[in-house]
Predict the 3D structure of the following.
Amino acid sequence: MIQNSKIPYCLITDILSDEQADRLADVAPKYPDHVIVAMDHNTPCGTVAVAEKQKKLIEYARRFGTVFYYGQGIGYHLAMEDHLKEGDILLSIGVHAPTVGAAGALGLTVPFDKLVEVIGTGGFELPETEEYVIRLDGKLFYHTAAKDIALTILENRSEYEGKLIVLTGGEELDRADWLTLCNMLAHSGAFSVIRRDTSAEPDMVIDLFKIERKALLPGGYDKIVPMTALDGLRVSQVFFGGCTGGSIETMRQVAEALDGKQVSRYVRVLVAPATSKVYEQMLDEGLVDPIMRSGALLMNQSCSACWAQSQGLCDDNEIFVTTGSINCANWVGRNNNGVYISSPELALKAALTGVLYEN
Amino acid sequence: MENVIKGRIWRLGDDIDTDVIMMTKYLGLPTLEEMVPHLFEPLRPELAAQLRAGDIIVGGKNFGCGSSREAAASVLKTVGISCIIAKSFAKIFFRNALNNGLLLIECKDLFENCEEGDIAEVHVNDCVICNGKKYSIPAIDEGIRQILEDGGLVEHMRRSDKTDIKDETKEKPWIGKHHPGRTMAQQLIINNIGFDCKPGDMVTVNVDKAILHDIYVPYIFNQFRDMGFDRVYNKKKCILMMDHMYPNCNYDDPRCYRYGNRFEDEYGIIVHRNDGICHQVVKDKKYAEPGSIVFGTDSHTTTYGAFGSFATGVGYTEMASIIGTGKLWIRVPSSIKVVVNGKLPKGVYAKDVILRVLGDIKADGAVYKALEFTGSTFDEMSISSRMSIANMSVECGAKVALFEPNDAIAEMFGIDRKELDWLRVGEDECYERVLEYRAEDLVPVMACPPKVDNVHPVSEVEGTPVNQVFIGSCTNGRIEDLEAAAEILKGKHVAPFVKFLVTPASREVYEEAEKKGLLKIFIRAGAMITHPYCSLCQGRNGGVVSAGEVVIGTHNRNFRGRMGSPEARTYLASPAVAAASALCGKITDPRTLE
């Protein structure tokens, strides 16, 4: 259970607007060691305007002695690696706060004013929230992935809107799968998402073996179609990274699939580990060489092409297949609406062939 | 071309670099018209809106120095500048302007005797009249006049006969004969053209390799088409490197990637996509052989002088002509000899040597000239260190920077050392100037903002707080550079709040750094390690900084605005100084650590 008496962690990243950074400047944290200031989205920095904003946040961390990271990876992952324990609460203005549910922590997306209030007072009243338990039974069939589970659950979002989704079961799923589930379900309208063992009666039971391959059309999380609808789509860019695709498990999968092969020359392939520790693990396991030699780019630990404001930008008419979780219109390019969220497996095939296949 | 030009004067200063004329971040914009509002942005952001067709720009010395970016000249032509009058021009800018049909006039005295808003009347080949005073100007060379008359090199080449184009380069450019009493630059040109020449002569050389990079590739492609070419002169000698715009960090980068693919698909040239910075890939793949003549679209093409190659930067229009014809006219440069003897003290590196030379001869000290390096210090020096020196030589305007091939070079290319004996630096009397240094006298130095030639011993600026440290670039992103930095950072973490960026120069360097455990040292020290590419050095993205921030970089340019905000300050130094400064959070002499 979530312990409301615990001091919540507050995550500040460089997605704050310039105005928000100004408003934060004089808010003295009650518990500086529970305020995590992580420059993770635009690192190394892409524009002078962002650098100006980051400077304010760096100054804030320096002045009040908060936890601080610059370019060490994605804030949610750093919080899970270094701070969060099961049952802890993390508050952030970012939509993907529930990602930390994969580690059994409660990630909540809150308005900026609320975040500032909690930073200042150290207190947070967890609202009474109904739980919605989803039990995952069995094992995924060949060519299906956590993304397909998430999309299947998203198809029934009216059932759990405003509730706390508790994911349970799924013994065969790995950490990357849980990250994907918690992160993608953050777009469901639920209060949050958390992985937790529970004996409560499930509200939904999913037989993983029966999950079908699904796809999300670009421009939001509303249009879910069978994967066959996209079969044969020509691809210009593929990205492995982000909250969902930047884990060591995905990096292993990428290195294994690219080993000894060359990515399509018509596809720009970017790989970015989620954190410094993931990268170090990649070095230890020999995952770097196969990626580098395949013609892919191995970028620094950050949000990278999932955030896509300073790495992985696309032309208007290009198709971008990502293992990240953002697919908004005009996101990776001025007039681009061609971002397709994919499982690592299908993204790897797209990287090698230049085509998004349905299996 | 008009014989009399009359226009309003805009007066700029000395060393107006091409970054100031057009910042790197705008180079990917699809059209020159879209770049116009950004002209001179870091220096005078209001100026672009005030420029009108027919205006005249008057500058001091070394106008157009720095990057080879032809857009600087093309956009000035687009806005309708009728001519630029300056005390002197940087070599690549000079050629770029001419190739765009933009008239440049050298005039020593006008700058001091005119004010902004004055009207100048230019009588081509004769004089400039301003405020009632007459200043004589040199006549334009006939060949240059023809290109100007045609409206630039594209039109000029469009009219050229293309029926008999063939590759006339030698199969083994390193085989040659020594000609006594000549500079090494002359030896290389004579070997290429087959007859004697002297400094100042205009000669047409055969191009052994053409190195294109992605930042200009759409322009090269279109100019090549517009000139009327349907094939490159030799597919194996035209090599394109994706190093500036991939990873694609700005909106217009994917277009460059696409045009790179088109070059390969339609003309069959060699393309390197994820291999790293062009100059390091040229080394890794041994593209620039001793004795060869190489042109590249990057100003730091001078790097290959480290291998005994006559190598220099050109603009995109000239590159289009080169890959079409395999030839280029050049003026045989006069040479400056730089002699360094002795052993470099601990903590003093090749970077300190070239920064010292730059500080001494200044940013325009070798414009149009060859720098030729010799002495026992260089005999002992690694190829990587020689590359750092040759690389940065362009920062004082050098056309080429040459080193005598030694055993290491012969071994690298698999050539019999004796076959390279003809490639020697000449006797002192061949040179316009001889600079001599004792290695033991050299100390760690930095190029301080805002000019590359503002060089001071590290001890003079020690203690300056540092916000960001960058280790990488074609100047100092090689294994020995990473090793020097890693030695300082091993088992340690950079100072709190210091942003630390490491970019190995090439994929081969990256892989070797991984094997040697250097990447692990850096990641544990708090680094962001990126894929090999031009990274922060180009200042388009990937680590740009805000007003008032201080950057220490191992790269090659610290112009105003190059790293982001015009109010940021950039110091250039050796990897050891950069690493020591990252560790301490302030500028630090590595010799003081321990």
Notes: The CA atoms of residues 174 and 249 of chain A lie 8 Å apart. The mean pLDDT of chain A is 96.
